[in-house]
């Protein structure tokens, strides 16, 4: 589904990704872990097509298409979803309005009819219930005054509505208390754990992986994957720290 091959990328002329390779098949859940500044968020941004993140080498294919040749909205329409480490606030735009625009923009790009008001509301209510999110919250401006946990749960509602094939989730667990962590984990499983979908979880800690069990765990350091293992690698990182594991893999 996703094949990243020897990817190099720079931000503000500073090389960050230095030969990153990773392949993800349908039905798989992958986790990328790594120290602060390793290039985890950069990986997500490059795959999502964020301006300012310049690819200087390598290739990425998504379902056989050259992902890097697509604009961000084309990547989304192709089935890619990027969850942000720091979701943005948008004063003046209600969450339901935002979600409906996003869902229908994506449908339009795929040549599908827009959802009717009723159909959209039904879908939004189902996804909100899955994330234990009150519909009244979604009538408020996007993320304005939301707690860290509410922002992440709202983002998972957005993911449920857009129904992507590949979700790249950047530190979805940061700022979550135990209950919100479990709710988000269960939401990710309910929405994404399907034979035709895949997830790339970017995380510092192993705790989210207790809920969303990865098939593969990768360690990113200095802009490359330096180790790959199963779920046990996340436990080893938690116990021994990144430094020991990165050196072992070097
Ligand atoms: P991680 O998510 O693994 O903590 P990031 O991908 O956010 O790491 O950052 C990787 C490196 O890129 C860091 O050293 C960071 O300081 C640098 N970086 C990120 N954005 C910029 C920017 N706009 N200008 C310069 N350096 C940046
Ligand atoms: Mg970080
Ligand atoms: Mg980051």
Automatic annotation (TrEMBL):
<dbReference type="GO" id="GO:0016887">
    <property type="term" value="F:ATP hydrolysis activity"/>
</dbReference>
<dbReference type="InterPro" id="IPR003439">
    <property type="entry name" value="ABC_transporter-like_ATP-bd"/>
</dbReference>
<dbReference type="GO" id="GO:0005524">
    <property type="term" value="F:ATP binding"/>
</dbReference>
<protein>
    <submittedName>
        <fullName>ABC transporter ATP-binding protein</fullName>
    </submittedName>
</protein>
<keyword id="KW-0067">ATP-binding</keyword>
<feature type="domain" description="ABC transporter">
    <location>
        <begin position="2"/>
        <end position="247"/>
    </location>
</feature>
<dbReference type="InterPro" id="IPR027417">
    <property type="entry name" value="P-loop_NTPase"/>
</dbReference>
<dbReference type="Pfam" id="PF00005">
    <property type="entry name" value="ABC_tran"/>
</dbReference>
<comment type="similarity">
    <text>Belongs to the ABC transporter superfamily. Ycf16 family.</text>
</comment>
<dbReference type="InterPro" id="IPR010230">
    <property type="entry name" value="FeS-cluster_ATPase_SufC"/>
</dbReference>
<keyword id="KW-0547">Nucleotide-binding</keyword>
């Amino acid at each position: 589904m996703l094949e990243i091959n020897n990817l190099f990328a720079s931000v503000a002329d500073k090389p960050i990704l230095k030969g990153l390779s990773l392949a993800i098949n349908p039905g798989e859940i992958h986790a990328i872990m790594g120290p602060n500044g390793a290039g985890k968020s950069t990986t997500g941004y490059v795959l999502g097509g964020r301006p300012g993140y310049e690819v200087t080498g390598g290739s990425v294919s998504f379902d056989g298409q050259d992902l890097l040749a697509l604009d961000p909205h084309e990547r989304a329409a192709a089935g890619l979803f990027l969850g942000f480490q720091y979701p943005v606030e948008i004063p003046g735009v209600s969450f339901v309005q935002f979600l409906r625009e996003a869902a229908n923009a994506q449908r339009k790009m795929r040549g599908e009819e827009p959802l009717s008001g009723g159909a959209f509301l039904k879908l939004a209510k189902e996804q909100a219930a899955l994330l234990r999110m009150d519909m009244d919250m979604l009538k408020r401006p996007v993320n304005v005054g939301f707690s860290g946990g509410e922002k992440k749960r709202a983002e998972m509602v957005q993911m449920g509505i857009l129904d992507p094939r590949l979700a790249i989730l950047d530190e979805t667990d940061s700022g979550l208390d135990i209950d919100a962590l479990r709710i988000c984990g269960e939401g990710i499983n309910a929405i994404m754990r399907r034979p035709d979908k895949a997830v790339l979880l970017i995380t510092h800690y192993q705790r989210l992986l207790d809920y969303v069990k990865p098939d593969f765990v990768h360690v990113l350091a200095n802009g490359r994957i330096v180790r790959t293992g199963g779920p046990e690698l996340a436990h080893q990182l938690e116990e021994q720290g990144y430094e020991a594991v990165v050196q072992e893999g070097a």
